[in-house]
Design the sequence.
């Protein structure tokens, strides 16, 4: 285990995460449709951030093109959804995730051979290619994107298991996906696969000298991360009812990188905390009022940039690391 | 009975016009320690890198346990039974001693990174890996330091860990690049004993500057200068060689 990555949570962090889960489970009780959708979107971004954390925090591969796999699954849903009826969730979800997985497998085959700054540049270049493929192609929706007229239906053999048109149901469906992805990735972190990925982050050369074929590991991680990003993109498209090239653009990829850094890398809980914080702070900054002749809200990018610089300067292990440190200090004082 | 485990034939590595290793042939036998000495820049480290597959030779051939491994990547050569330890300590500093060794031991479990069933197994539950790791811990003398984070170890302990990790991959051929560098007297003595103990099951290549250790350990000595072998044979014989004395050992030896 490594301290720097907070792979093992202190009791204080565990309590905090438990409380967060309770709050999420109870949130629909507030009865606000608008905020229900806002929090659903935050959870979707949290799944997206966790998928990137597998590459960025665990394996040490910083991808600046991760949104491509997020967007592709959304497009897959748009293509699979007929104009006048709802397609099955049990068909569209696996196919959309598979589309992202295939793209990640093919692109990964080329990019995981590169290291460091080159990896960053090449992932970004491939994502831009995917972006312009959709942006410039009217057949694929062009710059406006595509509308998805229905939410996928959860009917299986004539039995309607649940109804995703219901906002609360969609909320809990997303929460379930978030918890499953989190539990899966936490388990994976301690599997031989996860340990090898952590080893690659710290010293890939030594891993190879010990007999690990690191290419296969990195490609598998890249494909898995792309698939999970696809799951998030599918949920996003299903929730909002549209998909456009912006969702697989550079800004989307960069936001995911920032979320993971903000929350704390390599432990997945940090990615969740980072995603929620980022989305929340983004809204706060965008809603800043006009002061005199200056519209503060219009310059939200400046504020969020400063916020992230401050977090990186004063909490190098992200917000989760900060929470762990504060918890430690308190328990020391108690003793 | 001796057995050749690694055979290098006319290995050459050129970097542009410079032949860092030039036409070097050597054999590593089970139950023998083969030491390579030479001044800085003689090509010892390049030779080690060639044998381990970190560098591909410009020409020449490498046979490991009867299999032609010329041009194989490092991970495949490692899995074929070659273990190396590095001159510059090359361990996983944020991990504990136990995690470092266990990770090395995992390398000999079946590798199926694409198999989802293996994503859900617990690394610690691999019994064969546990056994390999346990044996390496015992041999290396790091038993009491298992839970220490590698970054907090003394230099000597880090060298021990380096070797423990190599042993956890259960190699048949060991390449040890200056294993004694920077070690204290007691630690060095313990390592020398360990190497003598390991000798009977392994073929060993030892690159070392500590001449006392070399003469205490080596069954065979090769002297390199400017990428070439200038002498090779039993240590006493090599020590008497006039050209070696001129080139390297100096008069006091």
Sequence:
């Amino acid at each position: 285990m490594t301290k720097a990555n907070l792979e093992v949570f202190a009791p204080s962090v565990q309590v905090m995460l438990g409380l967060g889960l309770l709050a999420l489970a109870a949130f629909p009780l507030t009865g606000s449709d608008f905020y229900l959708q806002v929090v659903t979107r935050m959870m979707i971004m949290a799944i997206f951030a966790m998928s990137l954390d597998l590459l960025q925090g665990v394996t040490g591969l910083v991808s600046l093109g991760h949104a491509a796999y997020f967007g592709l699954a959304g497009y897959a849903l748009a293509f699979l959804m007929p104009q006048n009826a709802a397609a099955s969730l049990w068909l569209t979800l696996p196919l959309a995730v598979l589309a992202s997985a295939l793209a990640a497998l093919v692109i990964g085959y080329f990019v995981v051979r590169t290291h460091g700054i080159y990896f960053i540049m090449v992932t970004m270049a491939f994502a831009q290619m995917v972006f312009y493929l959709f942006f410039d192609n009217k057949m694929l929706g062009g710059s406006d994107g595509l509308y998805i007229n229905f939410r996928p239906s959860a009917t299986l053999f004539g039995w309607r298991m649940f109804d995703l048109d219901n906002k609360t149901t969609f909320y809990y469906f997303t929460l379930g996906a978030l918890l499953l992805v989190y539990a899966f990735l936490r388990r994976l972190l301690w599997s031989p696969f996860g340990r090898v990925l952590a080893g690659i982050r710290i010293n890939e050369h030594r891993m190879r000298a010990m007999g690990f074929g690191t290419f296969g590991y990195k490609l598998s991680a890249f494909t898995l991360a792309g698939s999970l990003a696809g799951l998030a993109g599918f949920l996003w498209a299903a929730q909002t009812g549209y998909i456009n090239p912006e969702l697989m653009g550079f800004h989307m990829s960069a936001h995911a990188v920032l979320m993971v850094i903000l929350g704390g890398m390599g432990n997945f809980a940090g990615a969740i905390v980072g995603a929620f914080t980022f989305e929340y702070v983004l809204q706060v900054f965008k809603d800043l009022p006009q002061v005199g002749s200056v519209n503060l809200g219009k310059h939200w990018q400046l504020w969020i940039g400063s916020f992230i610089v401050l977090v990186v300067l004063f909490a190098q292990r992200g917000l989760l690391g900060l929470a762990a440190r504060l918890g430690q200090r308190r328990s020391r004082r108690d003793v | 009975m001796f057995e050749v485990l690694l055979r290098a034939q006319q290995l050459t590595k050129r970097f542009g016009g410079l032949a860092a290793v030039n036409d070097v042939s050597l054999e590593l036998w089970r139950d023998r320690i083969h030491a390579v000495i030479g001044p800085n820049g003689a090509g010892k480290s390049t030779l080690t890198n060639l044998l381990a597959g970190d560098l591909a030779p410009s020409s020449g051939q490498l046979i490991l346990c009867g299999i032609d491994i010329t041009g194989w990547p490092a991970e495949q050569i490692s899995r074929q039974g070659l273990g190396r330890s590095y001159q510059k300590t090359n361990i996983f500093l944020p991990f504990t001693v136990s995690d470092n060794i266990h990770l090395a031991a995992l390398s000999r479990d079946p590798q199926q990174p694409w198999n989802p069933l293996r994503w859900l197994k617990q690394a610690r539950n691999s019994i064969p890996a546990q056994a390999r790791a346990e044996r390496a811990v015992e041999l290396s003398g790091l038993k009491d330091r298992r839970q220490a984070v590698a970054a907090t170890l003394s230099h000597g302990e880090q060298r021990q860990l380096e070797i423990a990790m190599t042993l956890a991959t259960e190699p048949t051929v060991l390449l040890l690049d200056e294993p004694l560098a920077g070690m204290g007297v007691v630690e060095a003595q313990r390592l020398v004993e360990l190497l003598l103990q390991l000798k009977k099951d392994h073929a060993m290549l030892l690159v070392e500057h500590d001449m006392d250790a070399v003469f205490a350990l080596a069954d065979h000595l090769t002297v390199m200068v400017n990428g070439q072998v200038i002498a090779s044979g039993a240590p006493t014989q090599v020590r008497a060689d006039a050209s070696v004395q001129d080139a390297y050992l100096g008069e006091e030896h």
